[in-house]
Amino acid sequence: MLETGEDYREAVLSGQWWEKRRFTGCDFTGADLSGLRTRGCTFDDCVFSRADLSRSRHDASAFRSCTFDRTVLVESRWTACSLLGTSFTDSGFGGIALTECDLSLASLAKARLRRLGLSGLRLREANLTEADLTGADLRGSDLTGARLQGAKLEGADLRGARLDANALVQADLRGAEVDVETAIAFAAAHGLVVR
């Protein structure tokens, strides 16, 4: 069943279980979705501004081109989800867990993602401008084409991550842990000749 343009603003939907539901252009602004569980659901162009998704669980669900503005995402779990083109602004990420998720083209500019486990994520062409990824675990993540101007990756684990030359020049990588391949690419991106 497809729900289009439904108004769920300020709705109390905490602790519910949704499976294979489809939403397009729905407004969840200010809704209490704490403890919500979704499996195989799709949300296209939906708004979750100021919504509470704390302690929610999402399995194989898609949140494509959605808006998360000042959304509470604390302690939420996302497994095999697509967040393609979704925008996150001033949202609380404390204790969030993202596993095998696709955040390609997502906007996480200025997001506080300190010390989060983000390994193996697909972040192709994501906007991570001025994001704080200090101490984050990004092992094996695909950051190809990601915008990392002013991003803080100090102490981050980037072993096995895919980064292009632009990312290696734009981000603050002091103290980041990298593999030999990334170290050589970093040197080349900064004009060094490695022989």
Question: What this model shows, in words?
Answer:
With 195 residues, this protein is mostly beta strands. It has helices spanning 165-170, 180-189; strands at residues 2-4, 17-19, 22-24, 37-39, 42-44, 57-59, 62-64, 67-69, 77-79, 87-89, 97-99. It has a five-stranded parallel beta sheet, with no helix packed on it. A four-stranded parallel beta sheet has the order 1-3-5-7, with no helix packed on it. Strands 8-10 form a two-stranded parallel sheet. The longest helix has 10 residues, at 180-189. The mean pLDDT is 94. This is Pentapeptide repeat-containing protein.
Helical amount: under 10%
- Total beta strands: 11
Q: Distance between termini?
A: 60 Å
The biggest sheet amounts to:
5 strands, parallel
Q: Could you say what the CATH architecture of the largest domain is?
A: 3 Solenoid
Q: So, the CATH homologous superfamily of the largest domain?
A: E3 ubiquitin-protein ligase SopA
CA-based gyration radius: 18 Å
Order of helices and strands: EEEEEEEEEEEHH
Summing up helix and strand content along with how strands pair, one would put the structural category as: mainly beta
Principal-axes shape call: elongated
Q: How many domains make up the coordinates?
A: 2
Q: Which percent range describes the beta-strand content?
A: 15-25%
Global mean pLDDT: 94
Low-confidence stretches: none
Side-by-side strand order of the widest sheet:
2-4-6-9-11
CATH class of the largest domain: Mainly Beta
Protein name: Pentapeptide repeat-containing protein
Pfam families: Pentapeptide, Pentapeptide_4
InterPro entries: 5peptide_repeat, Pentapeptide-BTB/POZ_domain
